[in-house]
Amino acid sequence: MARRTETESTDSAGIAEHSVEPTLRPDTELSATELAEVLNHCAGLAASTAHRMMTVASLIHDQREMDYAERRAEVHSGQLDSLEAFDELAARAAAGEDPYSEFGPDGLEQAIAEVGATLTVTPAEARELITAGDALRYRLSFTGHALACGRIDKRRFLIALKRTELVTDPDEMQTVDAHLAEAIFARAPMSTTRFTAMVDEIVAKWAPDAVRRRRERATNDRKVTVGPDRFNPGQSRVSGSLPIADAAAFDARLSAMAAEVHAADPRTVAQRRADALVALARGATSLDCTCDDCSSCTTESRETTEPEDSPTVDSAQVDTGPMPCSCADKTAPRANYFVIANLSTLIGLDDDPAFLDGQGIIDAETARTLIAEARRTYLHPAAPTDSSTTEALSALRYTPSKKLQALVRAGELCCTFPGCNAPVWQIDLDHTKPFDHQHPERGGRTLERNLKPLCRFHHRIKTFTSWQDYQDEFLTAWFTTPTGHMFVGNAYNGRDLFAHLAPIRPPDHPARVRHGTLRDTKSRRALRAEQRWNEENPPPF
Question: Taking a C-beta distance cutoff of 8 angstroms, is the pair 343, 378 a contact?
Fold first, then answer.
């Protein structure tokens, strides 16, 4: 009996010694690869948690609405016993009196208070959570499933909610939701700029009336407000809401005015844009430069102004001093912004949406208005076998031609680095395979299939660190982190929005041609056999 106990004790110790149960380690002991996995896991948990919080907030609203309806029913059945009572109620409503005020806060107000207290958030945030939960359950149920699975996060779901709120037809809303969820699950995660463009393109295709209503709302809701900054004494805040085309023109004018000063101007770009806004408010069309040369010229010109009673001096004996600065008598700078659209849309054959750089999707009517007086460039990708002498020589130059730059930028919507939203016409063009400055013919040529837009920050990250990138024959940009994780940078791009920008497929490999020939031969033999049988067995059979 004692021996049996000893054996059992020994077996238990062996099991404990060879246990394969995972042991939790603190994050400080994890490798960079494991930390990246933890980060990705936490992002999925956050998305799933956001889905449940929205659902629960909406369910709380449902219960409070039922409680409110029951309380109203206890006080009044909702039936009127005479026409006089109906007339009295109608007169009270016409006078602006709320017939339900005697019942206190409604179900939504009660739910907002309860959710706000539970989460310690403002009533506006609580209302947003309840509204999102209702849309998740009834309007965007398929897209909400993508949130629950971690394919998108809360921010992107709210983008989808906001961009689809003007879809009023239930059938159209169901169609938009289905196609949006399909697009989300079919693609890798993408930046918010690309995601917003994808949502807008789906809405424009399946609910065109919503695009018209969005344009009307943007026109009616335009405003500009100026008020004191609550957090920074001595400062004010300027905010506004403009139609997308007007906002693009305004932004481009500020950028143009900020860029016209000398390089030695000590102000930052943000400061120059703010000064440009003040200059426009004062009626100026250009921005004064504040570099040392320009400032000294202005000071000296003021000091050399003579009073009216000063004696006359021979002009030949006067030292005129330094020449006036070159920024005097400037004309208004030209504001530039870029619009990409199908030629068929411009000539009115269709109403496909266009893309305004830095702003997003615009409707066809707005695009036609913007491009009516614009300088146009017509783009079409070349076949991989097209190799004229001019193109072959340009491929050996480091700087792409203007047309090639436009083609590469039009094929993207923003920086191709995963998650980046930098406007595509304001950033660098990077050679995926590095350009060989000593021997350009050895590789890294300046071709569409070897170029992609990267902002300066991510361009330096890719060039000087251990990040690796790759472009396949369909121009999909792949990025590999130092830990070995791989991400797609342009899961949705301009070639999805404008099909004619898609790269022309290269000719098939001889092996693919051989298989295709065998399939065609087999198909023709089967067709001839069927024809012979029909000839030998005419109807009736």
Answer: yes
